[in-house]
Hints:
The protein is mostly helical. It has helices spanning 13-27, 39-46, 50-63, 80-83, 91-106, 111-126, 133-136; strands spanning 66-69, 73-76. The protein has two domains: 13-76, Winged helix-like DNA-binding domain superfamily/Winged helix DNA-binding domain (Arc Repressor Mutant, subunit A, Orthogonal Bundle); 91-127, no CATH class. The radius of gyration is 17 Å and the shape is globular.
Amino acid sequence: MIITLDPDSSTPFYEQLRNQIVLGIATGQLEPGEKLPTVRQLAEELSMNPMTVNKAYALMKQEGFIAIDRRHGAKVKPQLKASQERKELPPRLEQELQLLIAEASIHGMDREGFQEACGRIFARMAGGIDQDTDSTEHQTDG
Length: 142
């Protein structure tokens, strides 16, 4: 997986790193149980302070995306996909989604357009997790 950070972004490096690793997990570029580079290795590869990588890893551990063991390092949680088969969003994700919906609404997007865009993105990101995603776009439930 190739990680690229944008120095001109207003998003801090640790968040950019976290976001790219989470996207890698969601798209299958990083498999459950896969070992991640050590903090030192990744910091050297990205020419950044090891504390920045450590902060990203700590955040992902707290969020339940990775497990960290002193002897074996950081790994993508093996049971991640199965444990995420819930229907309700964690509170943090619900807050972020509310903000995205508000911004989309301000830019003139209606509910149907937002749902279609989400369906397309989900299908692209989640791959084979939910094959019914596209079929919901064409249903007409009054």
